[in-house]
Design goal:
alpha/beta; five-stranded mixed beta sheet; 125 residues; Transcription Regulator spoIIAA; 31% strand
């Protein structure tokens, strides 16, 4: 498993881009969020994080999905920003879709490509 952290090319002050590869489970996802939080990388200018899951095998079930949602809801910084999830596997897209529909305190939305995710993050509400 690997996670590459990058600032977005066009919006480096506003969007973080996380590119996941290999097999990824909930513990690694939570650890990666803790890394961003502990290193103060989600400052007040960050409007969203794009999570690219197209190159990984997501090892998640409903129980681990709920663990992740409970973790994300605990942090005000994560409730304030938009969490875009890029995925192209029906077995994966179900999780950000459930997050969007069920977790109203979080701003989660699934996408199949980067450009719509960027547009969603950068749009004014």
């Amino acid at each position: 498993m690997g996670i590459a952290y990058n600032k977005h090319k066009t919006y480096p002050q506003n969007i973080y881009f996380r590119d996941f590869s290999g097999k990824v489970d909930v513990h690694e996802i939570i650890h990666s969020w803790q890394f961003l939080l502990n290193n103060n990388l989600l400052n007040s200018e960050i409007r969203g994080v794009i999570n690219n899951l197209t190159n990984c095998q997501l090892d998640m079930d409903m129980g681990s999905f709920q663990v992740l949602m409970d973790f994300l809801k605990k942090y005000e910084q994560l409730r304030k920003i938009k969490l875009a999830v890029i995925c192209n596997d029906p077995r994966t897209i179900v999780f950000p879709t459930l997050g969007e529909m069920q977790e109203k305190s979080l701003k989660i939305k699934p996408f199949t490509s980067e450009n719509p995710a960027v547009k969603w993050i950068m749009e004014e509400v």
